[in-house]
Amino acid sequence: MASGKGPAGSAPEMARGNDGTVSIAARLEAIRSKTRASEERMDAVLRSIEEVRSEVKDHVAATQRDLAERVQTAERKSVEIEARLLDMQQGEHGLQSQVSTAVDLMKTGLDRHMQELGRELAGRLESMQRSEQEVEGRVKCFEAIGDRLKAMISATESVGPQLRELLGAVDDMRTNLGVSIDAIGTVRDDVQGSIATLTKAQADLGARLTLLETGLSEARAELAASAGRLSKEQENALQSALAPIDRRATEARQLSVLAPGDFPYFRFEDLHRGSAEAVRDLIRPLVRNFVRCQMVVDLGCGRGEFLDLCVQEGIGAYGVDSNEDMVLHCQRIGLDVVRDDIVDHLRGLKEKSVDGVFCSQVVEHLPMLKVQALLRECFRVLKVGTHMVLVTINPLSLYALANNFYLDPTHVRPLPPETMRFLAEDAGFRKLSVSYFSPFGPDYTLLPVRFEQESEEQRAIRVNFDRLNHVVFGNQEYALIGLK
Length: 484
What we know:
Blueprint: H1 24-154, H2 160-190, H3 195-225, H4 232-254, H5 265-272, H6 276-283, E1 296-299, H7 305-313, E2 317-321, H8 324-332, E3 337-339, H9 342-347, E4 356-360, H10 368-381, E5 387-393, H11 398-407, H12 417-427, E6 430-437, H13 456-472, E7 477-483
Parallel strand pairs: 1-2, 1-4, 2-3, 4-5
Antiparallel strand pairs: 5-7, 6-7
């Protein structure tokens, strides 16, 4: 029986017998062919399944990796959050520690301040006790002097010859004094236009007054040491004889310098002091000593520059001046000013009644006893913890001394800073400081000497020029600042 195959992939044609039936071999071949085709399809399906399985595995692996990364990120963020919470807790503890430290420092500072205040109060109490002891000692001294005077008054022994000799000597001195005063009057008329001549006459008069006072002191000492004692009538006669001499001496002292009322002082001040604006600029830094004060007194207020500054800064202040023109000028521009002698005005104020004293260009017009009285009264009327500011010409600057001081014929004497410091300390002020201001402009001072590469000799020349500039053209004014 013959057989054959069709094209590849198709079932072979089954050999048929003569009777038209399919042979078994052909059937088997067909079955094999179908089996192979099924196996091929099965292989393709298996390959597809394997590919899907591989893709699923890859997807699962990628998903696992992503999930692991997310878990790591979450863990990292959790660690960061925990670290931030820890930092916040530590910062809170640190802030609490800083606050506690600051509170401890404040407590320590307050305790130290209280201790210093206690020491200061103790020092003031000791000073008051010393003052009381000094007052008691002076009272005892006065009592002893009173006892001696009583003994002299109650004495009955006569000293007639000695008294007549003494009165004769007093008459001679009175005659000599009259001659001296007449000479002084002649000199005063001749030197009104010359400050240098006036200064010389003043020195001459001072010497004569010193000799006179020395003679009177010696006469009084001789009388006190005499063996005899005065009766009441004799003492009265002696005092009557000495009274004209004392009066003439007082008149002679008054003739030694001009008073502001002796010539047009307001016009003189306006011409030589400088503009009000320039003066305000000079003294403006001194106003800070009176911040928040409501009762400041400006002694010798002049044209009112300091009072103007006080109005601008909201400081309560008023002025005192003895010159009528100055007072009227200040009142015309709306400033609170009264006309009075500055020392008499202070004596009329209650103790600790003002919270600031300012006094500019005044003390050089006063005799020394009045300067001392002024400082004592300033200390008395000031409240504790307040300032006195006193401004005057700086005599350590030779040009300021020769020109600024002697330009004004009403000036009595220059006052160096250390002299004023001593007098203020003696009056009771503490924490005293001296501030120099009002420098000369370049038109006055010596030109500075500078060398590029200076030798020792050139350095000495430069230093000497600087020192000479400081001595001759130093600051024109200084301010003495004291605290009560």
